[in-house]
Design brief:
The complex is a heterodimer of chains A (358) and B (240).
Chain A (H helix, E strand, L loop, with lengths): L3 H25 L2 H25 L8 H19 L3 H23 L4 H22 L9 E2 L2 H4 L14 H25 L2 H11 L1 H6 L4 H27 L1 E2 L3 H18 L6 H23 L7 H5 L3 H16 L3 H18 L12
Antiparallel strand pairs in A: 1-2
Helix pairs in contact in A: 1-7, 2-7, 2-10, 2-11, 2-12, 3-4, 3-5, 3-10, 3-11, 4-10, 5-11, 7-10, 8-10, 11-12, 11-15, 12-14
Chain B lengths: L1 E12 L2 E12 L3 E5 L6 H8 L7 E6 L2 E2 L8 H4 L1 E3 L12 H8 L8 H13 L15 H14 L4 E5 L7 H17 L3 E5 L3 H7 L2 E6 L2 E6 L1 H6 L1 H8 L5
Parallel strand pairs in B: 3-8, 3-9, 6-7, 7-8
Antiparallel strand pairs in B: 1-2, 1-4, 4-5, 9-10
Helix pairs in contact in B: 3-5, 4-5, 6-7
Classes of the chains: A mainly alpha (358), B alpha/beta (240).
The complex binds adenosine-5'-triphosphate and magnesium ion.
Chain lengths: 358, 240
């Protein structure tokens, strides 16, 4: 018999194993791979934030690239112009993004569903213009590029992995730290009174109001929290990419990536967005780097796959296939399989299931 | 003592008058039934009390508070809880969590709150379903979960919108018993919207009859049953 308690213990043990593996990972990987894993982590963090808003609260945003950008620019500018080291910049970036989230959340109360999606899309379109207007960095453009000195970790950081650069190792562990803290925070949030209110407002707003939930406040709070997650992700990205930048296509594409990571990982699940982020980053890497190396051996397919338009198209096709196979994401699929396993185990003749109906 | 008082309430949707100059009161401890043909405005009245609909004019007072001056989420805190005609549970939450959300207005969830939620589930014979998601359970069970959720708000006024709809005969009898018993155990006043006349007549202290948004009769079950206007409204005799 597999009880709830046992399921929880299994979950805890698996999380610890995964965490240990992630801590050990840079010892195994070179710099490039370590940074790619760091990218998985920060995209996962942004997707987790989007999950609080979209998955748990039902507000769809395709503009989270903008919050990500606010975080990235805040950290990059403080480091570049004011000589801050990275960690203190989080103390500015996180509250700032939270505040921007509140400011966006209020007008968002007026619109729902597709209209909300469009309004947030506007955010992703507007943000690059704002940075172009107010940020004057490299050659007067809005690209803030950081040099090694500005990116170097604080003196107290030990070099535990000598095989890869101290900076890259620092970048990875910062992303890992942020991800761990924010996963735990998300777990606490969704199981709290506020977390139940998020779900209640999503599932039935009038019923939520009738039990005393201030839906407007919950929705604005969801926006603010999810902006905070996306902003911290943006800050972390600066350590990995060594720059902050906002082009229209890029901001939009990031927003979509968060959404894709969320959907294929599993909405309204805590680890889903991280799994989804891993899949998105891995798929993209495989399509744009690994596949072309093998195109030579593909014969007639070579011309099709060698085309530059092929990689986004392939990515799209894979997504469609994915959603067909696992409509409720990786975590949803896993849960169904697990439920079936538990049922089979529990339905031995000795353990007849308790009657469900009264 | 008058607990809920509705005065000259007027509600319109575009050109449709859903409630026309409705006045009635509900006393503390009373079970007051609100009946009337389909479209008479019963659910609309609930939605006005819940502050989900905005009346054109009129007053609703509860225990001295002017409800129409408050936002919807403040109503629960005054001690008003309700169920919905079309189930309005939170399907993704477990049965226990639905009940905990029902007590949202009580503030922080601590051990005492959880114990209360367990007691309510037990009282409504739902304890064996505590950890199940509220989706996919039988209809009658879902309706009981909604009552459990409402009770978790520790209401003084419980508003039930067609709790008997879709239930079998024996379930309706059980429900009638339950409503009366809950009124006594939880010191409730009940505003009951119901089409099931046997239930209405057996448990109500007072009946208010609506037709086309207006009150056409009010009194004890016996009085309303004998009222010719009520008979006419229900049998659909041509209006004179
Ligand atoms: N949100 C709304 N928008 C437009 N019209 C509405 C709305 N809600 C109710 N109405 C109208 O108000 C009138 C009263 O409806 P209401 O739902 O209150 O009736 P009811 O007495 O609850 O009927 P039933 O017994 O069928 O539940 C109806 O004519 C209905 O069409
Ligand atoms: Mg109705």
């Amino acid at each position: 018999m597999v009880s709830r308690r046992q399921t929880q213990v299994i979950g805890l043990v698996m999380s610890i194993i995964v965490l240990v593996l992630l801590i050990w990972l840079p010892h195994h990987n070179g710099s490039t791979n370590t940074l790619r894993w760091a990218q998985v982590l920060y995209i996962g963090v942004a997707a987790m934030g989007l999950n609080l808003l979209t998955g748990y609260n039902g507000q769809v945003s395709i503009g989270h690239g903008a919050f990500f950008g606010v975080g990235a620019y805040t950290s990059a500018l403080l480091m570049h112009n004011h000589g801050w080291s990275f960690l203190p910049t989080l103390l500015v970036a996180a509250p700032l993004c939270f505040l921007v989230g509140v400011l966006v959340g209020f007008p968002a109360l007026r619109v729902k569903g597709l209209y909300l999606a469009l309004v947030t899309l506007g955010l992703a379109v507007l943000f690059p213009d704002l940075t172009k207007k107010y940020v004057h960095a490299t050659g007067g453009t809005n690209l803030v590029s950081l040099n090694r000195g500005e990116l170097s970790p604080p003196a107290w950081v030990p070099t535990s992995v000598s095989a890869i650069g101290r900076d890259d190792q620092w970048a990875y562990y910062v992303c890992l730290g942020a991800a761990v803290v924010l996963v735990i925070a998300a777990l606490l949030i969704v199981r709290s009174r506020f977390g139940r209110a998020l779900i209640a407002v999503r599932d039935h707003e009038s019923a939520a109001a009738s039990v005393g939930i201030n839906a407007a406040r919950v929705k604005v709070m969801a926006f603010a929290l999810s902006a905070l997650y996306a902003g911290i992700a943006g800050s972390c990205s600066v350590l990995v990419t060594h720059l902050a930048n906002a082009e229209k296509v890029q901001t939009f594409q990031l927003s979509i990536e968060f959404l894709v990571a969320l959907v294929i990982g599993g909405t309204a699940t805590v680890v889903g967005p991280l799994l989804g982020a891993w899949l998105v980053v891995t798929l993209q890497h495989w399509i744009s780097d690994t596949l072309p190396q093998h195109v030579g051996s593909l014969g007639p397919l070579k011309r099709v796959l060698g085309d530059p338009a092929a990689s986004p198209a392939l990515f799209g096709i894979m997504l469609i296939l994915f959603v067909f196979v696992l409509p409720d994401g990786v975590v949803g699929g896993f849960r169904r399989a697990w439920a079936r396993f538990v049922r089979n185990r529990n339905q031995t003749p000795h353990h007849a299931p308790a009657p469900l109906a009264t | 003592m008058v607990l809920l008082s509705v005065e000259d309430l007027l509600v319109t949707f575009g050109g449709v008058v859903a409630i026309a100059d409705l006045s009635f009161t509900l006393d503390e401890g009373q079970i007051c039934a609100l009946i009337g043909p389909n479209g008479a405005g019963k659910t609309t009245l609930f939605n006005c009390v819940s502050r989900l609909y905005e009346p054109k004019s009129g007053r609703i007072t509860f225990d001295g508070h002017e409800l129409l001056r408050m936002p919807a989420y403040r109503i629960a805190r005054l001690g008003i809880a309700r169920t919905f005609q079309n189930l309005a549970l939170f399907p993704a939450l477990s049965v226990t969590d639905n009940v905990l959300v029902g007590g949202y207005a009580q503030g922080k969830v601590n051990a005492k709150r959880r114990a209360e939620a367990r007691d309510i589930l037990e009282r409504l014979s739902l304890d064996h379903l505590a950890d199940r998601p509220a989706v996919g359970l039988p209809y009658g069970t879902l309706k009981r979960i909604e009552i459990a959720r409402a009770l978790a708000g520790r209401p003084r006024l419980l508003m039930l919108d067609e709790p008997a709809a879709g239930l079998t005969h024996s379930e309706v009898d059980e429900l009638s018993e339950l409503v009366r018993a809950l009124r006594d155990e939880f010191h409730l006043s009940v505003l009951l919207v119901e089409h099931h006349m046997a239930m209405v007549m057996s448990i109500s202290d007072k009946v208010v009859v609506l037709d086309f948004g207006g009150k056409i009769a009010e009194g004890t079950p016996e009085e309303t049953r004998a009222n010719p206007r009520v008979v006419e409204a229900y049998l659909g005799a041509p209006a004179s």
